Amino acid sequence: MDFAFTDEQQMIRDSAETFLKATSTSAAVRAAMSTELGYDAELWQRLCGELYWQAIHIPETYGGLGLSYVEVVALFEQMGRFLLCAPYFSTVALATNALLCAGSEAQKADYLGRICAGSTATLAFTRSRDWSVEGVSADFQRRGDEVVLNGEYRYVIDGHSAEFLILAAREQGCDQPSGIRLFVVTAEQAGLERQVLPTMDQTRRQANISLNNLCVPASAELEHGDWQALEKTLQLATIALAAEQAGAMQQLLDMTVAYTQERHQFNRPIASFQAIKHKAADMMLRSEVARSAIYYAACTADTALGDGNAFGADLAEAASIAKSWCSESCFSNAAEALQMHGGVGFTWEYDVHLYFKRAKASEHLLGDSSWHRENIAAMLLD
Amino acid sequence: MDFAFTDEQQMIRDSAETFLKATSTSAAVRAAMSTELGYDAELWQRLCGELYWQAIHIPETYGGLGLSYVEVVALFEQMGRFLLCAPYFSTVALATNALLCAGSEAQKADYLGRICAGSTATLAFTRSRDWSVEGVSADFQRRGDEVVLNGEYRYVIDGHSAEFLILAAREQGCDQPSGIRLFVVTAEQAGLERQVLPTMDQTRRQANISLNNLCVPASAELEHGDWQALEKTLQLATIALAAEQAGAMQQLLDMTVAYTQERHQFNRPIASFQAIKHKAADMMLRSEVARSAIYYAACTADTALGDGNAFGADLAEAASIAKSWCSESCFSNAAEALQMHGGVGFTWEYDVHLYFKRAKASEHLLGDSSWHRENIAAMLLD
Amino acid sequence: MKLQFNQDDEIFRREIASWLEENLSGEFAPLKFRGGPGDEHMFPEERKRWEQRLAEGGWTCVGWPKQYGGRGLTIEQQVIFYEEYARAGAPGRMGHIGDGLAGPTIIAFGSDEQKARYLPGILSGREFWCQGYSEPGAGSDLANVKTKARFDEAAGKWLISGQKVWTSLAHESDYCFVIARTDPDSQAHKGLGFFLVKMDQPGITVRPIEQITGTSEFNEVFFDDAECGAEDIVGAPGDGWKVAMGLLGYERGVSTLGQQMAFQNEFDEVVALARDNGAAKQPAIRQRIAQAHIGLKLMRYNSMRMLSGDKGDGSLQREALIYKLYWATWHRELGELAMDILGPEADILAAPPYELNRLQSLFLFTRSDTIYGGTNEIQRNIIAERGLGMPREKRW
Amino acid sequence: MKLQFNQDDEIFRREIASWLEENLSGEFAPLKFRGGPGDEHMFPEERKRWEQRLAEGGWTCVGWPKQYGGRGLTIEQQVIFYEEYARAGAPGRMGHIGDGLAGPTIIAFGSDEQKARYLPGILSGREFWCQGYSEPGAGSDLANVKTKARFDEAAGKWLISGQKVWTSLAHESDYCFVIARTDPDSQAHKGLGFFLVKMDQPGITVRPIEQITGTSEFNEVFFDDAECGAEDIVGAPGDGWKVAMGLLGYERGVSTLGQQMAFQNEFDEVVALARDNGAAKQPAIRQRIAQAHIGLKLMRYNSMRMLSGDKGDGSLQREALIYKLYWATWHRELGELAMDILGPEADILAAPPYELNRLQSLFLFTRSDTIYGGTNEIQRNIIAERGLGMPREKRW
């Protein structure tokens, strides 16, 4: 047992911190979020070309770096901390994991290869607030060598810009989980329409995707692309999202401590007021525990990814623990940060609101805290 | 609209405060709670004989003072504040209200007359944690001029000592609310066994009551004693319980503010620490809002009692609002009081623990906060 | 203690309700449910015309004594007025600061000349006011006011210099009442003055604050030797604290019940949403909706106690002291609840580029409720110190 | 970063587990799940004999270096030891203070003579220790210690006078380590000494504190010229703070994982209860049970990080700083949850006159968790000041 970063992991984390601090500045974030694309394509190129982050946990066989999910989580933590605007979550946490869980060797070689080369991708699976198996409402029909898909997806992260997509659909007329299959398709084709959704949290784009008799070859069906693979993918993505939240929590704490040290009222730095100190202490508690949660979940994810057959309860539990803690805690830290910033926290000019909005948006993505707690309760009690 | 005590109401409240401060002292409470009876019979006699509190809202026709539920609530508030050990809640909030809601003229004249004369009484209706209609599990069968009752009751307040009891039972074989009837019986008779339950909160006694072919005359059946009358009784009692909680909250606040002003740490009174001040401020907020809740509920109860047919949603809503706020708030105030007293709050010697235990026990009686919130949610949403 | 309104009051209720129904039509129909907090920057001109319509009906300054042109309503009737106003969805009052704060202050502390000069414009819905209270370095700590007023003997005028912040609708206002330090060497609550200042003058610059919502209704106001007539100080130099404290009383007056009716409208929208999207079936959401309902009812009962002046145990002061902390926290939680009922849909805007829907606006805007007018933390200090007699914070 | 224990560790796990299974039988069977917090006053004699049994098996002082008679276990093995100990329901350790605190302190800071004198009694499970830290006026603020130690030159001994409070099992202990002021004019952290004091002497009076539970396991200890040999001060006079701070480190050591396993036993009981009485079907209770489970898992992950010494971003200190606040709050909430699952049954005792059932005891006893050893409020101060570098509270 060794529950600490190895030297190599620490190095990756530190270099991510250094890089993102310099590139994902407040000005850069604000510039990116005002574009339609939602991110800086040039920065994405650097990220892929120089740092090779998009390939971090893709096995070396497929051209990736072959590192573990611990490194993935370490990167997401820093990205959440610096509010990086990039199609990284969609490409790595969603699409790459889906391919790892569901692709045949050939499919992995092909599509993971594209991701290694800098392609963006995402996963579309639900059209409602339902993150469980019932949320999959698009359907498909097999017609000879083709498959025809119909339906609508909402909350598709970076759906407007991803170069290819993994789509979840259920066989027409089958309402069992066993009817669910995954398909990989390129974005630009007849029968697939996408519409970017304006979002309160401008640091992450979401889209609507409509399928109208989208015809794809049978080979687009991911070989192991069943509900179990999708569920595992979502759990892996949930851990990445929690890691972003943990990173944001730390940054909110740091910003707030710095601000309260500077800001004076009643002739004292407001950091000297016990009410402020105690709120900050609670923020730190939440933040430290969040880190324990995501590192543990990262180790569990790594085991699950390493074992193709591991669809056990461990990953589900670790993901739900991490997300339920981090979702509420990140929002709490953001809310307290805003409150402690006082009036200026309420302005567009200060960055607090960017984190605040991201916290609320991320809270709802992939299940909020109550939803994940009910998952845990079901494991324990039913 | 005049949402303030009249001068007369204020006088009654003030005299209750003065009387209880002098008689329901820490020493008196500790003496009473160590007896098997659970209260000081002499004090009860003074309360009935000198102050006539047991008759406060019994109409003058039946020998009572004919005052309103506002006065009742004002008394309960002071009793909760001074932790009075007496069969007052059982006799007035439970039995008297049941008789007022369900008795015929003759029954009221008889039994309310006994209460005016100082008899103690209570209500027994559930054997489980269920405070709704499903909780009534004892049953009865009519046999000629007699009724035979069987079953068990738990959590019967002062059930070990009450001189007569109102029993709720359902007609054998009928699981509809319409099968529920109320009976009034004297305590000492064959077929009725009672057993005092040792309680964590020693300031209020509870008992188990078993009925084994208890035969009572048909006249023991309360004329209007159906589920609606029982439900209304429980709502009225719930308001009285909330009033006790509000009184306790205020006392906890006062004790705590006084203690923190005296107690020094780091060479300052601990009342000067902002964390302590803010906790106290929150206690005061909860306490003031609790008072608004119980006074409003008292007015609503008064209207409902005045109108024999008023089984409307107003009373149910007011009771659930009052209890849901006061239950949680009283426990919060008790918990914070204990915390702010530090080590001594953890000792048997200081009174905080008496309030703390009372708060937890009262929280669960007649439905906890979630239960009452779900009542409200059902009214709003279903 | 009784809850019912009497028959005259109920007649009055029907009168105002039907007046509103009749008049909130035609050109004013689009103003329904607009102009509240978070939306105050919308339709300023139309809402100013609405103020004049109100004045024509005799519905401005309903609580002012008749001798000053008010309607002289009883407390109960004022409660009813504000309730019906909000229930009808009548627009956020552009005249609120004049009607509810400046006017009552001038009536209580002002000179006859000030009354004659300023009250008619408020009554007629033609002159609008804003307040110059908070300062960037002082937050809501009046004792720390740095804005200075010096009397220019030659010109016979006060010259005011400094900066105020969080001034709602400054750019739409004709006048501002300003707390400024008349004695430059004074400290804390001493040496303050309360000034009535014309906004349209070279010495005043208004800069809108871009908020978390992407909109601006708060402003910074810069005073650079802004002029104020010798006759336009309320009370004497040095009385500013006393006058301002009186004014704080009005802020917690009957209009709170109108505010609550607006909250009720918002709450009803939240409930309707939960029913529509199925969230009303989720146990955790049900609990929170019930809690919000309970909280709002209790807010109302508490205000009724406040207005009835229950001094039973010296508690008028007490229930009033908690009021700001209570409603601000409740309102902020309502915003969070709305988002959590929306779930992932909470993140999707009404329209690009950044048009919030009403509930998103509620969510974001209510973050200011626990900050302006004394943060929750300041409120807790005040409650502990004034309500419970606990020691004051030391200055360093 | 990896979670798995290696194979040797798993072999070790089976070894201790089977030893416990074998030995927790016969006379020791009734001790299962007894003697934990809230129950520490029970079966003291039997539990002392159990300590000797442990010693015979080589299971006392498992983390001490071998050169001092310890078992010299690795961190992982210590974790396993404490986990299995708690999992088996082995009784609350009478030897905990000696084994976990006094011994390591003597090893780190004591003289050779002290080591020779005191370690064997701890190792053999025959000499028991208590701690003299908190004082009535000082709470957990060591800097405010008022107990005095003066050196009597004639007798060649230290004479200690003062009062300690919250001393667990003082009446069952042979020795007490006492923080006292060696320099009467000193202030704060200076001038303290760390003394090893024999309990059985005329100068010491132990008075049990009757607790909220109706039982007593904490005591007040009065020192009235209690004697302590010149050779029984650890370090030099004035070193007391340094020694005490080292000791605080041990308190947050590997035994936390054993504590958590005991928490797990309690949690499992709560879950079983909820299943039995149907509360597990209530959505609000389900959420709270899940939250408790999550909280306990996270406590474990946090400890594992703490023990792995993740200094990634200087955070060893950080995750350790939050630990007390976290577990104390979690444990207190578990007690509340247990009561709320019991519902009205929570109020009914196991037996008259005042015999609490295990969950009631948990509920009441956990109120002390957020008080002793530094209240939650003190913990938050420490986190803010040491963890975040925020200004210290001013003394008045």
Automatic annotation (TrEMBL), chains A, B:
Its cofactor is FAD. CDD domains: ACAD. Pfam families: Acyl-CoA_dh_1 (PF00441), Acyl-CoA_dh_N (PF02771). InterPro entries: Acyl-CoA_Oxase/DH_mid-dom_sf, AcylCo_DH-like_C, AcylCo_DH/oxidase_C, AcylCoA_DH/ox_N, AcylCoA_DH/ox_N_sf, AcylCoA_DH/oxidase_NM_dom_sf. Residues 6-118 form the Acyl-CoA dehydrogenase/oxidase N-terminal domain. Signal peptide: none annotated. It comes from the Bacteria. Residues 227-380 form the Acyl-CoA dehydrogenase/oxidase C-terminal domain. Keywords: FAD, Flavoprotein, Oxidoreductase. Belongs to the acyl-CoA dehydrogenase family. This is Acyl-CoA/acyl-ACP dehydrogenase. The lineage of its organism: Bacteria, Pseudomonadati, Pseudomonadota, Gammaproteobacteria, Cellvibrionales.
TrEMBL record, chains C, D:
The keyword Oxidoreductase applies. Residues 8-125 form the Acyl-CoA dehydrogenase/oxidase N-terminal domain. The keyword Repressor does not apply. Belongs to the acyl-CoA dehydrogenase family. Gene3D superfamilies: Acyl-CoA dehydrogenase/oxidase, N-terminal domain, Butyryl-CoA Dehydrogenase, subunit A, domain 2, Butyryl-CoA Dehydrogenase, subunit A, domain 3. Residues 130-225 form the Acyl-CoA oxidase/dehydrogenase middle domain. It holds the Pfam family Acyl-CoA_dh_N. PANTHER family: ACYL-COA DEHYDROGENASE, ACYL-COA DEHYDROGENASE FADE29. This is Acyl-CoA dehydrogenase. Its cofactor is FAD. Residues 238-387 form the Acyl-CoA dehydrogenase/oxidase C-terminal domain. It comes from the Bacteria. Signal peptide: none annotated. Keywords: FAD, Flavoprotein, Oxidoreductase.
